[in-house]
Amino acid sequence: MTVKPFLRALAGEPITPPPFWLMRQAGRYLPEYRETRARAGSFLDLCYNPELAVEVTLQPLRRYAMDAAILFSDILVIPDALGQSVAFREGEGPILPPIRSARDLDRLGTPGLLDRLAPVIETVRRLSTAIPSTTALIGFAGAPWTVATYMIEGGGSKDFGHAKRMMWGEPQLFARLMELVTAATGDYLIAQIDAGAEAIQIFDTWAGALPETEFRRWAIGPARHLADRIHAERPGVPVIGFPRGAGVLYRAYVEETGVDGVSLDTSVPLAWAAEVLQPLCTVQGNLDPMLLVAGGEALDTGIDRILATLGKGPFIFNLGHGIVPATPPGNVARLADRVKAWRG
Amino acid sequence: MTVKPFLRALAGEPITPPPFWLMRQAGRYLPEYRETRARAGSFLDLCYNPELAVEVTLQPLRRYAMDAAILFSDILVIPDALGQSVAFREGEGPILPPIRSARDLDRLGTPGLLDRLAPVIETVRRLSTAIPSTTALIGFAGAPWTVATYMIEGGGSKDFGHAKRMMWGEPQLFARLMELVTAATGDYLIAQIDAGAEAIQIFDTWAGALPETEFRRWAIGPARHLADRIHAERPGVPVIGFPRGAGVLYRAYVEETGVDGVSLDTSVPLAWAAEVLQPLCTVQGNLDPMLLVAGGEALDTGIDRILATLGKGPFIFNLGHGIVPATPPGNVARLADRVKAWRG
Asked: Mapping DSSP to helix (H, G, I), strand (E, B) and coil, where does residue A105 land?
């Protein structure tokens, strides 16, 4: 019997009030996070330090009654563990030596992958016993396309010029890179589950940059592979997909990946999601993070609108994108109280 | 009788092969543009110099058989003409003194607007006689929401934090700013039409950042206002809307704005556009600009896929976003040849 509300919702049960958590709910908007962050060296040092990573994962749970805790880590631990060293410069985002050729790619590999990721897995293990008994533990990874953009661009990008040129101009090289990342991500997610993760979310932050044909191949394809593998090897563990910016293709993503839940970005219209997506799987989302910054009556109205339209079906309240550092913690409390007070 | 193929397509006629042009078809990918650009002072100086702006507008037409020419200008001439001085720093994008308060907004105003925009209108006037007789002249403006983001943020933004906080936190101030921009944009577009623009495109580059309720109010609302005004005051001049990133809401945008044509971003699935949007209006799009950079067989395949799905109905071939500086001019020729050779 699944008892945690978050897992019941992912199994397809409508729950009133709905479970909620916030994307990257641990972070710079919390003073206690900033304090812990200052004790770690680099950002990746924090991700690889089980004691501190557990601490920051738990911090928001001490303030707010979230129904799930998400492992504190970063999507770029996969390239880092594959041998492409990742650095985070404060205020600049990640920097990686870019993968542009077969020779660059040859330097990466999965041997030793899980050894390098052992501290992250240890964080999951500790969290599985440290979180409250009604709170579910979510493991996660970046989707292969999104992770590949950073690996090929060498960091963030506005237009994914290098990644797309490899995708179209050197399709075999690109496919080899995607297969490597997909295999590594699968191993990593299975290890998270074995350490105690009760659900998995796959973040495809840049899925919306892909035209339809490429979306089907490189966003739906790897997500289906990962969902299939988890469902086959670790039956009962639900998978949430987040193909951010997929627009109309959210429907194909849900139908063709077999995910148990889908996370909606802020632009997805609620009535459409209720009519088209919610009959297919549990939906999660999709408050604008900037509305959580703005607060006030506009925030209440925005919360109520989401609850009124999606709250009757299988639903998890969340943001439509990651929480931002400018978020007043009091607004998060206001959100938590309002969601928890909802009675349909 | 409308004879130019581009205008016939916008009137709802399927044309084989379809007319084509490229978003911001004049630009840094052309050596002759870079040469002309070097003769102007700042980027805005180029926009305000009719002789040079006419020259760069015509440059791509000398190389490729485009069916339309789009005025060379920038969406930020509106805030500039409203009194918010705009500067472009090379490689950094635009910088504006941000509008954050009623006092900031009070400094802006429409008196003298068209005087300040006179050089742009003069460019339209000269173009109307300088372009080939079968080429249509497109005037344009940024959509009020997109322009407002730059005005409030003081430049480009990743998350539109200031703009959204004003939208939600100071709704009256935001509404006043939007009304000012919308009114100025309407005057500006009417003046472009009176100077010879035969069609208008409204670029809402950041429409996809708006949740549904705000999209309806601040993307659909102003676009409907502008389309209504043009249709009422200058009947016969078609309006193309480009609500980039609208996803599922492309349908509502088309249904509720009354635009004659809609420009599709790269993420819009072709079969959905053919089934849902094309019966409502002419569609335009949506090749990925990076595929035009990549070239080769992948480019041919991408072009053919778009033509096969959308080419039978009222359609204008275009990119799904602006052309990028890295585009090889030879690939644009390859695109032009392939579109023009299509026979359905």
From this structure: helix
> What's the domain count of chain B?
1
**Residue of chain B with shortest Cα separation from A264:** B211
CA dist A304 and A319 (Å) reads 13
Q: State the catalytic residue, choosing from A150, A188, A250, A253.
A: A150
Give the DSSP letter of residue B243: E
**Whose CA is closest to B343, among B318, B308, B292, B293?**
B308
| CA-atom Rg of chain A in angstroms | 19
The rounded distance, in Å, linking the Cα atoms of B282 and B261 is 4
* CATH classification of the domain holding B90: 3.20.20.210
- Return the structure tokens found at A238: 């639900």
The pTM for the full model equals 0.97
Cβ count near B105 (within 10 Å): 19
Domain that holds residue A272: 5-341
ipTM for this prediction: 0.95
Asked whether the beta carbons of residue A161 and residue B290 sit closer than 8 angstroms, the reply is yes
Exposure b/e, B46-56, CB count within 10 A at least 16 = b: bbbbbebbbbb
For the stretch A255-279, pLDDT in tens is 999 999 999 999 999 999 999 999 9
φ/ψ (deg, to 5) at B97: -70, 115
Question: Residues with Cβ < 8 Å from B323, sequence gap 6 or more?
Answer: B22, B23, B24, B25, B27, B29, B289, B292, B332
> Does any CB of chain A come closer than 8 Å to the CB of residue B320?
yes
Residue A207 to residue A195: CA distance in whole angstroms: 28
In tens, the pLDDT along A120-171 reads 999 999 999 999 999 999 999 999 999 999 999 999 999 999 999 999 999 9
